[in-house]
Design goal:
single chain, 430 residues, alpha+beta, FAD/NAD(P)-binding domain, Helicase, Ruva Protein, domain 3, 2 domains, 6-stranded antiparallel beta barrel, 5-stranded parallel beta sheet, 14 helices, 32% helix, elongated, disordered N terminus
């Protein structure tokens, strides 16, 4: 066999930087192809952020159809076509279950481990890493991506770590995550690596994050959780988001799954806002009822309580904590007899119930955000391989890219799919 033929058949040495969801999947996929893989992680263990996802249960993915997956991607969904179709939610579940972690599907097609322990998902992935002989280096912080010029192209050739130790390799996959949950190691290193190697990085904003509200009455409702409500977020006449679900009042404003989803659209649109137009969020407390049906309900309730004071007639409409706030906002005297409430007052009260207004002043910080919106521009990345268009043999996957999605397992699916595609795309030899 010729030397040339031998070189073509040689497996690549691959470095994966970052041992989160995307990094572990990238390492597994590359190792499955027969490459020699080194996984470099700055923390003392793998999957540190994965451990706390889904409140410690790990919402692995979403079992919905492919069109629903794309519908739940907020940014650059078309870029994910190859990634999603080459390694979809079914394949993710198959890999994790075959590695010894049974899964279950809950409301909203959200997939969790049967045990409800995220550690079992991480353990399953670690078994796969060991199975395919991935060389894991913990406490190994990469500080610089090393490149060289070859035949008129910029090519990757190695990394330099914080202790000045260098690792050389044929290919590298950057899976360092975003800026959210900095305590897990996500401090934005990947963006710096990208910029230092000539890539554009878009503005980063907290996403899937609680919202801050101007109105002081929100503080009075701190701890109150509302289920099966609707919200509409808009700026002037343009609607930014509409959704249905569960929310929570806090000392600074609002949170909960519904609000976290809304926040992604707030972050996406706020930079495009013209002037200082206020962002309003309207809460529908009775979405199952049309305005006409609600008015009939109010008429019936008011008839039954016609001799009571207004403040004592709302027990069947709202949680106890919400009643004083609704009375205050209605402008109706709490001592007023129900049978003295005018038709106009009742109609206005019904409108308040259907469109309870709040003013959004901003989001909480990255410290409270589940994901980062913005990142490495996908225009610099080949969507069919996750390889950089600017630096040969350098790949990017996961949250470090300008990709984000709604809650419900969709962001982890992005990590799995892009990580797997990157690892699977590395060619034999170089």
């Amino acid at each position: 066999m010729s030397i040339r033929r031998q070189k073509r058949m040689r497996m690549s040495n691959v470095i994966v930087v970052g041992g989160g969801a995307a990094g572990m999947m990238a390492a597994i996929a590359a190792a499955k192809c027969g490459h020699k893989v080194s996984l470099l992680e700055k923390n003392e263990k793998l999957g540190k952020k994965l451990f706390i996802t889904g409140k410690g249960r790990c919402n692995v993915t979403n079992a919905a159809d492919m069109d629903v997956l794309f519908q739940n991607v907020c940014t650059n969904e078309k870029f994910l076509y190859s990634a999603f179709y080459s390694f979809d939610n079914t394949q993710v579940c198959d890999l994790i279950e075959q590695a010894g972690c049974p899964l279950k599907t809950e409301r909203g097609d959200r997939v969790f481990p049967v045990s409800d322990h995220s550690s079992d998902v991480i353990a399953a992935l670690q078994r796969e890493l060991r199975k395919y002989q991935v060389d894991i280096h913990l406490h190994t912080e990469v500080k610089k991506i090393l490149t060289k010029e070859s035949d008129g192209n910029t090519c990757f050739y190695g990394v330099e770590c914080a202790d000045h130790k260098k690792f050389t390799a044929d290919d590298c996959i950057i899976c360092t995550g975003g800026c959210s949950y900095a305590g897990t190691g996500s401090n934005g290193d990947g963006y710096r690596f990208a910029e230092e190697t000539g890539h554009k990085v878009t503005e980063r904003r907290p996403a899937l994050v609680p919202l801050e509200i101007r109105e002081n009455w929100c503080k009075d409702l701190m701890g109150l959780s509302l289920k099966n409500v609707e919200v509409r977020m808009q700026c002037e006449k343009k609607i930014w988001y509409e959704g249905f679900g569960e929310m929570l009042f806090t000392h600074f404003g609002i949170s909960g799954p519904l609000i976290l989803s809304a926040s992604s659209f707030y972050s996406k649109n706020i930079s495009k806002r013209k002037g200082d137009d206020e962002v309003k969020l309207f809460l529908d407390l009775k979405p199952a009822l049309t305005p006409e049906q609600l008015d009939k309900r109010l008429l019936r309730d008011f008839e039954e309580a016609k001799n009571k004071q207004f403040k004592n007639a709302l027990d069947h409409l709202f949680p106890t904590k919400l009643i004083p706030v609704m009375i205050e906002l209605s402008g109706i005297s709490p001592e007023k007899k129900v049978n003295e409430i005018s038709r106009e007052e009742r109609k206005a009260f019904g409108m308040l119930i259907k469109t309870l207004p709040m003013t959004v002043t901003g989001t909480r910080s990255f410290a409270e955000a589940i994901i980062t919106q913005g990142g490495i521009s996908v225009k610099d990345i080949n969507p069919s391989t996750m390889e950089s268009k600017l630096v040969k043999h350098l790949y990017f996957a996961g949250e470090v890219l300008d990709l984000d999605a709604m809650t419900g397992g969709f962001n982890l699916q992005i990590a799995w799919s892009t990580g797997h595609l990157a690892g699977d795309s590395i060619k034999v030899g170089c």
